[in-house]
Fold these 3 entries.
Entry 1:
Amino acid sequence: MTASAPITQDVMTFPRKLPDGPTNLVGLTRDQLREALLGAGTPEKQIKMRAGQIWQWLYQKGVRDFDAMTNLSKDYRALLAENFVIALPEVVTRDVSEDGTRKYLVRIAGGHEVEVVYIPETDRGTLCISSQVGCTLTCSFCHTGTQKLVRNLTAGEIIGQVMLARDDLGEWPEPGRQPNEEGRLLSNVVLMGMGEPLYNFENVRDAMKIAMDPEGISLSRRRITLSTSGVVPEIARTAEEIGCLLAVSFHATTDEVRDKLVPINKKWNIAELLDVLRTYPKVSNSERITFEYVMLKGVNDSDEDAHRLMKLIKGIPAKINLIPFNEWPGAPYQRSDWKRIKAFADIVHRAGYASPIRKPRGEDIMAACGQLKSATERARKSRKQIEADAGLGE
Ligand code: SAH
Ligand code: SF4
């Protein structure tokens, strides 16, 4: 797909139940879980209790074996084992960077692969999860955007990424301990891996509801950030139906440049995007919108850009996250010089906005933002093709 082609949502959805196979309990909403248990023969008057017990085993204790669910009778456990599975994506490789960043390549049904990245910091541990295999969008600076293969992840595959990271971190509570203690290793989730989460809205929502459920993983909604390239019609739904924080991949201050960097801008331009952000429910000084801004040398990093950006976002409670471009082989851009990034940040800061510069993490294992691309799809387009897609050859 070239940058001038229409944006389409060319994705397949994967059935929750494989033909003739048992249903995976991971990723079902509470209602769907009850329905599934009823369908397998659980008596109606027990359904609430049984669903609650199983939910806790799955999401509070991290149990994967029906036999370990000791408050259920032996017969009932056998019935569960006949009808259901508890399945997570399979970890194919696990790389650990010199800086402690962990990257997991995980395989999902159909043999597709997605990447998940864990970033430890002193005050938090952030898991960057994927919502799609590849991405239908073609942002010209993003490695994922060059991947052709795309399918939506199921809710189970999305929450499964959080669960497998907790497995690896050894973070399921010991029996008798409460899950919601301070000092968690995995304390934050960002939907900033592969894919456009708002093109897979329902599955992302269902998975994040499971992550926030107080009788399970119980992450606060304010510790989950969804990043979108700007799917305008779905933005308000994010606040209403998920309630998490929002980040927007802004990256440019004129439509001309944004059309090239983030081609979805041709469908919903800067003015339309800002309009919907101005009315984003729940935005306040404590729940600001994050504007992500990738620093590309000579493309979007001038002082004029910084001033224009300040004018555009005036009135929106915001913080500006400056992302030094993470280069990948064949990329048609270069990272802005450090001095330029600092000068840009200073202008933003003087205008009264927080302007953190995102520290590149896990670069030695290609785990940085926008570098994610599955190993099977690593074969990349030619440089010429990438430049043509970026509109640089025109
Ligand atoms: N599709 C969503 C979320 C995934 S990308 C979105 O676009 O917002 C997460 C962030 O990484 C986005 O802000 C994206 O623009 C940025 N990004 C992509 N490629 C990058 C690269 N090579 N260097 C730095 N940031 C990049
Ligand atoms: Fe897709 Fe986001 Fe990459 Fe754009 S930046 S191609 S929307 S993953």
Note: The radius of gyration is 22 Å.
Entry 2:
Amino acid sequence: MTVRLFDTYSRSVREFQPLDPPRVGLYACGLTVYDYAHIGNLRSYIFEDILRRVLEFNGFTVRHVVNITDVGHLVSDADVGEDKMEKGSRRSGRTAWEIAELYTKAFQEDFRNLNILEPVIWCRATDHIPEQIAFIACIEAKGFAYLTSDGLYFDTSKLQDYGRLARLDVEGLKAGSRVDMAEKRNVTDFALWKFSPRDQQRQMEWESPWGIGFPGWHIECSAMAAKYLGPFFDIHCGGEDHISVHHPNEIAQTQVCYGTNLANFWMHGYFLQLGQMKMAKSRGDFLRLQTLIDRDIDPLAYRYFCLNAHYRSRLNFGWEGLDGAATALERLRIASYEMGEAGTPNEAKVAEFREQVNNDLNMPRALAVTWELVKGDLPDATKKGTLLEFDKVLGLGLADWQPVREVLPEAILLLVEQRQDARAGKRWQEADALRDQIHAAGYEIEDAAEGPRVRRRM
Ligand code: AMP
Ligand code: ZN
């Protein structure tokens, strides 16, 4: 069965074939670590995790690379304003290096809490300055860079199809632009290397052939992706905001240096929003995963919440929606637990599930197939085996889940109640008969001071 994925570059769903089967190179733009990730950011990483799991479900081996942006992302995406890291440092009274460390660790902890598979490679921008300098030097040598008083810029007018990914109307942009161009030659030009301000020492700065400074935001991804996955690999991902600036710039840099489009598929996860507003770190009122945990919400309920929507549609966050997801997850866990030991999966059901996930990751439909299985009339062991197959993609940790307290079937609860009544009325024979009935159904009962304790018999 083939995997079909939406490729933003061609604006179409295309059949996915690895360039070098069974290996698949997958690069996901990582977090800018000047603050905690918000649950919007995490929706993008859940989407990418599902993508990886679906590829693995189809027998591919995925080399999943996630970078950490710890330098160079300016407050505005347009190369003006302060570096987010230096700003975060001022706000918190810690060094830029300390906050990078702190928020990277927290981000990785979010991955674990959401059951997102550990990337094969985590790479930090600041650990790859020589690679970025070499990449910039290559762009300069090919005649696509020019110097201004504050840095070295990429001349986008020299590339014929600059902005193709975004379907950018470069002429229209020029005409309508009110952006302060400073010394930029074209509105869409962007910094490859920025100089440290003359009057001030930055915390993060390096020597380079052009002067002391730091890399522009986009070069890190071109350089690290090429290093770990080669100059043309299978899939590059990010959130929808990257369609307009960051990814066109990554493509432009790589086209100049390697003559490729960097990736065969470009995939974008749509935003989580609060009302009509996108959730953004810069607004400061965002929700962290930890905020949910502090409210006693299982982080996997948020994962389930995200699976309810297709990755190419915006998702509105709401507490009722999240509660609904938490309840559904709890039901699924209990149902799975009560199925007991896993037997051989049902091939037809697995194929049905695969059809949905292979159809551009249709997780809402995949969840519907999951519930049909749970409510259907296959033997429990078959159901459980099939469900655990599905969970390789869903990632809800069903195999390991255990109820905090034993969850008792309704019928047993009723017998326990009747026995309590019989005991209260001193009808001992009846109470004993009920105990036997409970025992025969596979449960044992122990009378403790606070009432009867009932457990499944071992
Ligand atoms: P950043 O830390 O801004 O570099 O963003 C990290 C990742 O989160 C990028 O892939 C963004 O596209 C993505 N992202 C940012 N905001 C949201 C949001 N509200 N919903 C989903 N993804 C987002
Ligand atoms: Zn990137």
Note: The CA atoms of residues 35 and 103 lie 6 Å apart.
Entry 3:
Amino acid sequence: MKVTEYFEKANGQTLASFEVLPPLKGGGMQAIFNTLDPLMEFKPPFIDVTYHREEFIYNKRPSGYYEKTAIRKRPGTVGICASIMNRYGVDAVPHLICGGFSKEETENALIDLDFLGVQNVLALRGDARKFDNRFIPEPDGHSYAVELVKQINDINHGRYLDANIEDGAKTDFCIGVAGYPEKHFEAPNFELDLKFTKQKIEAGADFIVTQMFFDNKVYFNYVDACRKAGINVPIIPGLKPITRKYQLNSIPRNFHVNFPTELVNEAEKTDPNNIVELGVEWCIQQSRELKEGGAPCLHYYTMGDAETIRRIVSQVL
Ligand code: FAD
């Protein structure tokens, strides 16, 4: 079923969904099951599976020179989606990115997903590669997520890249895109970022999943700004509890979000061994308030930590 249909069916009741990361190469599928098994009691309507493009690593050769090799550390997104649907009978939402994909490869990936019965995708641009100072698309790839949304919308209407394909099979993907309540870090300002987000909706996107945030005001203001801008699709808040003290620095660095003063002050006073308790409590309060405020779904970034997420959701739904 489509993500948006779950919300229609829920009739205003808040749902809980989860995001998992493919295991590092060499790890098995059991890691995903270990994360999801304990969360199934919350009847998630869908599970997101992230996509990780290739990275460059440098191996030292006997000569002393370094050899640059491209490897994908976390492959398996499509297989994990199929496995989740098979084991739990729950819809999987693969993340699809522009980075590393030509339009042809994207089309073939969409065909695979359609044949597998996947009905939802989250369309993203992806970040710049580690040693690039900006996002560089493939020569025949997309530069922005909006172009990927257009391509998915095209195939939904039976329009393939090969113009000779007449009367092509129509897919029926429900398309999600990312939204940034605190602005995407590359955008010159919030208004311009919102304008580009609106373009993704006008191109055919059906729902927005937000970057994580730790102050609900940020989400509620974002929803208001979207509505004023004419963005009327469901906006799903993304949530992650802090579990380690170093995350007070690593999360802003990696995800370009702010921590509210109250949370930082509390964390400073808290024994590092008890930070997880603070993170759980904070996330429970956030979740309850978002539910009260009418969020259609609470989307938890599990990062492989099922127990912490289970503790939170059990106090919220
Ligand atoms: P876009 O919407 O293309 O925006 C990127 C930037 O370009 C923004 O600053 C925007 O304002 C600007 N922009 C957009 N359109 C235009 C235009 N026409 N002209 C000029 N500027 C424009 N990354 C992964 O690699 N794998 C994942 O699985 C993954 N999952 C994610 C899930 C969520 C919920 C979120 C919030 C992010 C995720 N990301 C993932 C990270 C994401 O790929 C990065 O944040 C990336 O930098 C931007 O992706 P986007 O889809 O928002 O890009």
Note: The chain is about 40% helix and 20% strand.
